[in-house]
Write a structure and sequence with these properties.
Blueprint lengths: L4 H11 L3 H8 L7 E6 L16 E7 L4 E9 L6 H16 L3 E7 L2 H8 L2 E3 L7 E3 L2 E3 L10 H6 L1 H10 L6 H12 L4 H15 L3 H13 L6 H25 L6 H9 L3 H10 L6 H5 L3
Parallel strand pairs: 3-4, 4-7
Antiparallel strand pairs: 1-2, 2-3, 5-6
């Protein structure tokens, strides 16, 4: 699994294309719910050395018989080159598909979101030929959902809201609400949400809070993250068992060896060490390869 907030902020729209119409409502721009959505190729490279790729590209057909292209970019920080790239994406998409393109930028911090929200005129100041006008979702305008009933009404929106509020002081309550809302949901819905939330939190402290919630609140599911957490628990249990057997045998375990045992996550390796521990005369016997 790619552990990247960047991936989660745009991939969630691939998993739940209908999410855009709800996000647009939150942002104050009305789009009808999609009647269908097609994931489009994201490679916008021409036959030149310069490569350009949009993060996620969807063709949206709405229930109002409107069709447009939705380009979604996850933006982690200010990048002065991005407006030019975004303008290129929109122009290229309009030229290639002859459909109206729309750019949605998803951010996790307020400063980046405010920067991305600025309209960028392209052309002479007297008469800009084009104006870049992204639609931006971020902590400044996404809802803080701490009510389980509200989260349960739209789990995809609640997930994106949690991801965009990853640095919110109340993220613990937000994540607890999301995990509680998932308890009665079908596993097919829970699995991608669990993984996308983990991706979206990245290496923030909140990521460990989410892992703890998944381990306890969603222990009955078998998502990759849930299985990973269970494996970690089993590994820690075996490692502690090895150290207990060595202590009972009076075998000295240096700090380096203790760290090696406790940090090992490979269950097969740990099991082999556990089998050797009762007959070991020294720590070297435990780690022996033959």
């Amino acid at each position: 699994m790619v552990s990247s907030p960047h991936e989660a902020m745009h991939r969630i729209f691939q998993e739940y294309p209908g999410l855009f119409s709800r996000v647009s409502d939150v942002l104050g721009v009305a789009f009808a719910p999609p009647s269908s959505a097609t994931v489009m190729p994201t490679d916008l490279t021409e036959n030149r050395p310069l490569e350009r790729r949009v993060d996620t590209l969807l063709r949206i057909d709405t229930q109002d018989d409107e069709t447009f292209l939705l380009a979604i970019e996850a933006q982690g920080k200010r990048d002065l080159d991005k407006p030019a790239s975004w303008a290129y994406y929109l122009s290229y998409l309009h030229t290639k598909y002859r459909l109206p393109p729309l750019l949605l930028v998803v951010c996790q911090d307020r400063a980046t979101a405010e920067w991305a929200s600025h309209q960028v005129p392209i052309g002479p100041r007297q008469w800009p030929a084009l104006t870049l006008r992204p639609l931006v979702a971020g902590p400044h305008n996404m809802p803080v959902i701490t009510d389980v009933a509200e989260a349960r009404k739209d789990l995809a929106l609640a997930t994106l809201a949690a991801i965009t509020h990853a640095d919110n002081p109340d993220i613990g309550a937000i994540l607890k609400t999301l995990s509680a809302a998932l308890r009665e949901a079908p596993e097919a819905i829970v699995d991608p949400i669990v993984e996308l939330t983990a991706q979206g939190l990245g290496n923030r402290p909140a990521a460990q809070q989410w892992r703890n919630l998944v381990a306890v609140d969603l222990s009955f599911y078998k998502s990759p993250l849930s299985e990973e957490i269970r494996d970690e628990g089993r590994a820690e249990g075996i490692a502690r068992g090895i150290l207990l057997l060595l202590a009972q045998a009076g075998i000295d375990v240096p700090d380096e060896a203790r760290e090696r045992i406790m940090s090992c996550s490979d269950l097969d390796t740990l099991s082999s060490w556990l089998l050797r521990a009762p007959a070991a005369m020294s720590i070297e016997d435990v780690f022996a390869t033959k």
